[in-house]
Write a structure and sequence with these properties.
Pfam families: Vma22_CCDC115. It is built from 2 helices and 2 strands. It is mainly α and about 180 residues long. It has one domain. It is flat.
């Protein structure tokens, strides 16, 4: 009876793994299409604005990321990756900025001007009226970044499923030495 339950669990795990692999293949195809679309739109923008108008010379001297990648623990110890806007703080970052005791009397520090919470849109580096193809390139790469995080999470789930599959196969071999 235990071997029968183990085989049923093994079958359901194989079906889940195959579904995840199919989803991974689809997301990789979409990611490749988004990246290709982004580079093509960037080439169109360079053609429209001129090769020297869209290039590294127009980048800001001080760049800040617009998005960050956060890894979090999901069920069964799996890591799940998520793309988060840079201005959004994680719950563990909320709180007092200085640790320790404060001196209430005495010399006061002048607060340092902090950068704005929301980073500036990088498209403004190339002028106010940028071509639509440059905005399309930015959107394509942004979608690609989200897809890359989804693919990384899915790949972790597939690796976890494969290790579970191997463990169940070993248990089945121990229960039925002549089978499997």
């Amino acid at each position: 009876m235990a071997a029968l339950d183990l085989r049923a669990e093994l079958d359901s795990l194989v079906l889940q793994l195959l579904g995840d692999l199919e989803e991974l293949e689809g997301k990789r195809t979409v990611l490749n299409a988004r990246v290709e679309e982004g580079w093509l739109s960037l080439a169109k923008a360079r053609y429209a604005m001129g090769a020297k108008s869209v290039g590294p010379l127009q980048y800001a001297s001080h760049m800040e990321p617009q998005v960050c990648l956060h890894a979090s623990e999901a069920q069964e110890g799996l890591q799940k990756f998520k793309v988060v806007r840079a201005g959004v703080h994680a719950p563990e970052e909320v709180g007092p900025r200085e640790a320790g005791l404060r001196r209430r009397k005495g010399p006061t520090k002048t607060p340092e001007p902090e950068s704005s919470e929301a980073p500036q849109d990088p498209l403004n580096w190339f002028g106010i009226l940028v071509p639509h193809s440059l905005r399309q390139a930015q959107a394509s790469f942004r979608d690609g970044l989200q897809l890359a995080a989804d693919i990384a999470s899915l790949q972790n789930r597939i690796d976890w499923g494969r290790s579970q599959l191997r463990g169940l196969q070993e248990k089945l071999k121990q229960l039925e030495p002549g089978a499997a």
